[in-house]
Amino acid sequence: MIVLKSPKGWTGPKVVDGLQIEGTFRAHQVPILVDSEHPDHVKQLESWMKSYKAEELFDEDGRFMPELAELAPKGDRRMGANPHANGGILLRDLRMPDFHDHAVNVPSPGAVDGQDTLVLGKFLRDVVKLNQDQRNFRIFGPDETISNLLGAVFEATNRQWTPGKLKMMNSSRPPDACWTRC
Predict the structure, then answer these.
(1) How far is the C-alpha of 158 from the C-alpha of 121, rounded, in Å?
(2) CA quadruple 150, 154, 159, 160: dihedral positive or negative?
(3) HEC profile for 25-53?
(4) Could you report the per-residue pLDDT of 118-168, keeping only the tens digit for each?
(5) Does residue 130 contact residue 95 with C-beta atoms inside 8 Å?
(6) Distance between CA 156 and CA 176 in Å, rounded?
(7) pTM, two decimal places
(8) CA separation, residue 30 to residues 9, 25, 45, 99 (Å)
(9) Residue 100 CA, distance from chain mean position
(10) Which stretch of DSSP H or E encloses residue 68?
């Protein structure tokens, strides 16, 4: 197994308008705004896009180079052929909460100030709780969970990878086996 550890946004612009992009939360956003108010960003965007060297990856007709396609694993070596990843061989029913319990009552348009992903976070928290014994539900993206307003899941589980760095982001719960060995 090869594990690549790289900073967020490592192939993108390092700094834009004096703000650090690589290795920060800004790498998850649109790092370079190109509009009439930021014409100087066009060159920076062009440089970034050219750094991917698409001419080395695609032929004149825009097709992926066959010699590169040949590098992909075949048969049982494919990630989707792993019984833990393919969603079929080791499949267990997912216990689901009653979605009605998470309904937002909207008596009239504009009468409720609510956010869909906050409600979804609570729903997913309950999915985690209901499936802890089976260990068949897992959420990936621990550094985007809060910014995507899904933080309620941390009432039922915790982040598990690079815990030293992430401890400052959420240290309210001890590690759970669900996140490390599902």
Answers:
(1) 13
(2) negative
(3) HHHHCCCCCCCCCCCCHHHHHHHHHHCCC
(4) 999 999 999 999 999 988 888 877 567 877 888 899 999 987 765 454 333
(5) yes
(6) 9
(7) 0.52
(8) 11, 11, 11, 33
(9) 27
(10) helix 66-69
